[in-house]
Amino acid sequence: MLFKDMGYKGRGYTLLELMAVMAIIFITSALVVPFLRGFSENGKLKAAVRAFVSTLNYARGQAISSGLKHRVYIDTSLNGYWVAVEEDPQESPGEYTPLEGRMGVPKEFPRGIIVSAMGTPRGENASAQDYIEFSPKGTGEEAWVHITNGDKVYTVSVSPSTGRAKLLEGELVPQHKIEASEATLGEI
Asked: What's the pLDDT tens digit per position in 67-122?
């Protein structure tokens, strides 16, 4: 009755109703925020892996268009990669120099994302620095690279016949053999 006398016509909310709504919002955000944090980390991982795949495909394209071998070097101690070219195969065979511009500068994986394993013709986890080579014919070295954020793993696989890199979810290893020039390293 008191509210009717003061002209209150049922508009607005009581303090108790506002506190109940605030409690629901607080509880809901406490449950959702940890999920969103993991979602963001996995999104960052996938973006980093896609950038790496793009770099591999770029090196393949440059090898075809320039008629020169290109390599993507992967350095686990720097946690990064870059593209290099064999500029003069006649005078300096096997000598590779980083490309001009941003592709020749080591690009680091974002913080928390690492190369956990790789397999190339030089062996599985051959050294802290390894490479994947692309020929002017469009072929590439058979290789695979595992990239992880500790929670999720992606495998980047390079087909030897087409030189194309593809992204696979999970810690997958090709079922075929990678052969070195002197010996077969066996199934990886």
From this structure: 999 999 999 888 899 999 998 888 888 889 999 989 999 999 999 998 888 888 77
How far, in Å, CA of 124 to CA of 122, rounded? 7
| CATH top-level class of 15-187 | alpha beta
- Whole-prediction pTM value? 0.71
- Give the residues across from 130 on adjacent strands: 74
Task: Delimit the domains of the chain by residue range.
Answer: 15-187
Give me the half-sphere count of Cα atoms (radius 13 Å) on the Cβ side of residue 170. Answer: 3
Q: Which helix (H) or strand (E) holds 94?
A: none
Of 168, 122, 161, the C-alpha closest to 145 is: 168
- Nearest one of 118, 103, 89, 117 to 54, comparing CA atoms: 103
**CA dist., res. 36 & res. 44, Å (int):** 12
- The residues facing 118 across adjacent strands are 145
